[in-house]
């Protein structure tokens, strides 16, 4: 049995975490050997799969940016508040942080890693991406067609675009391929990775966002009373492109909240997402996680929740209009 690096799949922070662990393992788990790392499998997993019973973990698994599995693993590090563990064993780390890669970097620094400028910038940018701490200028650079020299932040988005295609098998393959190549100081300076042409993938992603924004423009509204952008996807005439989660606040920068509602394919349930305007978190006076939970209890089977600034829930489709009204009233 070899070691395995199991990280949040198809997620930029999961990618950055696996990259950092593979490259700087000596500062994180010094009992390992170079050969353990060279032969380690890379696996991308979704959080729900890490807590279920289907995936079998072993005591040679290194788990990053995911909830702690029920069984013993060799190394675990996570930064999500919902994945808190009170008693941490050897090689287990949990701490609230903007990003998991940034948390790993902090641990490595405590163990003697010297931070270079490139690593500092890597930490700063992975934190921005995972905690959605963008400025409007950074959104414009990274989510709209950008001409000119890309910043390090945009370069990380370009890498992320490679595993954000609509083909999930291709995404997994690219994700793993990039992490099995020779790794330089950070992904930004890893030559083999750039030979895979991230810019091409990113250009396609920008076109997908553009198409989606054109469709959504037809029905995205601003509710002045609730100071909320309303995106009721039941009103969509087409299903085109890829959703740009920051479009609402770019179109209505005066907003305090964003609200989206989408009927699931089964028709029976409807997914609701609520967020605060990341440019004005101070305007967010409502605990969104609690509002989502209350909505789920009132109009669904209770599955919902989140954080003070962002959350989601699932409700019965027949209650969708009532739930929409309830949320807008609560935000007001
Ligand atoms: Mn993360």
Order of helices and strands: EHHEHEEEHHHHHHHEEHEEHEEH
Structural class category:
alpha/beta
Q: Could you report the average pLDDT, rounded to the nearest whole number? A: 94
Which strand-content bin applies to the residues?
Answer: 15-25%
Number of domains: 2
Helix content: 40-55%
Query: How does the overall form come out from the CA principal axes?
Result: globular
Low-confidence runs of at least 5 consecutive residues: none
Q: What separation lies between the terminal Cα atoms?
A: 57 Å
Short description:
With 332 residues, the protein is α/β, with parallel strands linked by helices. It contains 13 helices and 11 strands. It has 2 domains: 193 residues, no CATH class; 115 residues, Diaminopimelate Epimerase, Chain A, domain 1.
